[in-house]
Amino acid sequence: MDRTSPRYRWIAAVLLALATGAPSAAQPPADPPAETEAWVFRGGVYESTGGEEIRPISGVTVGVYGTQRQHPDTGRMLRSARTDPQGEFEIVVPAADGRFAYYHVRQTDREGYASAHASSREGTVRNPNWVEFDAAVPQRIYADIRFWDIGPRPDLLVGVSTPVIEEGGARIEIPVQVWNNGSAPSTPTDLRVASGDWSVALEVPALAAGAAEALTARLAIPPARRGERHIFRAEVDAAGRVEEFNEENNRAEAPPIEIPALPDLFVLGGETAIREEGRTVHVTIEVTNSGDRPAPETSVRVESDGWSGSAELARLEARRAARVEIPLEVPIDRRGRTIAFRVTIDPEGRVEEMDESNNDFLLDAISIPDLPDLRIREARATLASDRRHVEVGGAVVNAGGIEAAATEVTVAAGSWRGAAAIPALGPGASSRFSVRLSIPDARRGGSPTFSVRVDPESRIAERDEGNNAAEAGPVQIPDLPDLVVRDLILELLSDRRTLRIAIDVGNRGGTASTPTTVRVEADGWGGAGDVGRIAPGGSAPVEIQLEIPPERRGREHRFRAHVDPEDRVEERDETNNRFDTDTSEIPDLPDLVAEVRRLRILSDEDSLSIVLSARNDGGAPAASAVLHASSAGWEQRAIVPALGPGQQTEVELRFRIGDPQRGTTQRFRLELDPADEIRELDEGNNRVETPEIEIPERKPVPVLVWIAAGALVLLLLAGLVRWMLARRRRREWQAEARSAEPPTDPHPGERYCRRIELELDPEGRRIAALTVAVRPAGETGSARTIRLEGKGVAALNDAIDALEEAEPPADLRDRLETIAEGILRAAADRAGRGGRPLDLRIDAHLVGGKATCEYVLYRCDSKGSAALWVEEARWTARTDAASEIPVGDLREASPEEDAGRARAALAEALERFLRKV
Description:
The chain is 11% helix and 45% strand. By secondary structure, the protein is mainly beta. The protein has a 5-stranded antiparallel sheet, with no helix packed on it. A 4-stranded mixed sheet has the order 4-1-9-6, with no helix packed on it. A hairpin with a 2-residue loop joins strand 38 (516-522) and strand 39.
């Protein structure tokens, strides 16, 4: 304590006054009036098991209680205080709070702490957080009260489940659970599971407070342990590597378990036999288990100089036997030889046995007979000269040691098949074969490869069944065209005298057709048209126009189209060249004709008269029809009576001249049957126009002005929509932009947007998060990562403000060293380093600010055989300047070295980074 401080001078004055009996300026007289008496309690709270005062604890609540009785009477709370950053407290209890026989000073532990020890020269320590003072002692100041608390610590507990013997009985598994019941994380430690001198050690990872870890101890069972009863005990942190609240609860015991005895497999005997006409050797083995325990599933293996096979041996009960059969396919090099096989039980050592030396057995030798071997020596496929057949031929040879019986050769390409006979062949003999196949229409245009196989049903036992097949081809089979009439449309032309027939001729074949004709006919009435060359899958339109004879009108006709009627073109299918239409009627129709006879303004000058002549030039009667007359501002209808063939009539229309029509020039359009309700030979002669006639006093109408204004508005709206769409597309491309050049392997039609930063405006940038990657020095594995954000980076952003306000360098350095110390402590906790140096890399994610960037949009176009990037658009925009930049790399010293060196180095790196920001 500073001896010049007012607090120290006040305490000295009080002590002097008590010692000399003299009054003091800072303390009442030795025998003050009752209302000025007070009791002063001073002391400190520290983190330790007792005796050390180097780690004070701040924020601990200490209270003074008054009572007339001793412990354990708690009494009444009088005054309380919290410890300051030096862990010290002072409580003054004035006499006004009452007089008591005893004063109890008690502390309340902070969360995660536990009381460990207390001391006082004048008081009586009742427990680690309770000191009692006798008020009968004439003393008013108690300044030696000390409490020691244990900080947050782990507390490891262990539990052991029932041991389990694995399937097969080779190992024993002991489930163990370790959990941290304390208030702080534990460091990695060890776990030992043992039964006497039979033990195994496991590593326990670091555990957070309240966390648990399930482990499994696995021990191989030695033969000496079989048939014994064992009790396994587990002890966590046996070496005392973790400082805990309670070191006495680290052990647990598993329920007892009996270790059973072992099986013992051996071969009683075996035999071999030749089967499947010498293709395979079957080895039959009898296996027994002479042990006292069932043998789990394993395998049996037979071998003779690299020729081997195996089979599974099912679970075999104690004192039981089983038979195993192993078929072996005979290799070619074993033909004609005498072979002896060795049998091995459990060759992989999967079953732990009482005796591992009796698992081998040598069988009697057996002679392997020789076989023939038919092979396709050559195979070829060719197109016959008639172009309608394929010939597949070649030769078969017997490469075996004995004669091969007569058989056959098959050739096939999917479902297209054929065969030829092969006679019996002695060793080394050969025979040629030839198969002639007709070409189906479905095979035209293909390039089939034929599969050729001798002895296809494997009736002959051979040395090698894998060389009986070969391929012939591919052989190119020419395709043919296939002409069809895909559609036929009948249309009566406007002159009503001509029938137009539109025909669509297609080629369904695989090659182009040569020119030919198509003929259309209906009961001897018809015509023909030319059909040019049609590519495969293509089509050609053909138009035929027929003049309609009078005798064909009013009758029904069914037309037939026939392409290539003279069979000039060789086709895949000659049966699909015809096409029949539905029944169609050719009508006998009227023909109304309109003519203007007179157009004049009547003498009263208020009416306009039009006289129209209507006649029927057709061959059928015409029903009554509507006559429609119209001009600008005028419209009128009249009825024309029914007209027989060759009849005509006149109709007069009168129009009242109104003010809107005066001063105008009018031309009237007159139309008979405007709704086309009457079918006619010619619909084009129903309309006629009158000559122009002037009507005085025409008033102009400003229609063009309104049209121009509307067009201008539409142009403006179209421009606005186009600008909005372009802006939206640019924002989408900005989101996908990259800083790199476009890739070198583009595809036509692909687009790529490049981002070029022109200017960075860092005004107002802040730190959003810090990423600290930490690993023990010298290690190359993956680093552990800490992400600091929110409150974790608020102090750094405050430091940015302090730097901008020109805070003194010494104050800024103190601020940064405090931040650096917090980062280093978090990194050490995250790495669990155990005293080793650490390598750290710190990166910062910055937000705020703006970046001015240029964006270039490229499009990939194909130039011949090359694909090139072509610039499509270029623009400039300002975007948010969020970025990820490094703060620095450093190596933190171990605790045995200068811990301040790492803190100063990190503070210096942080200062450089903040000045750059």
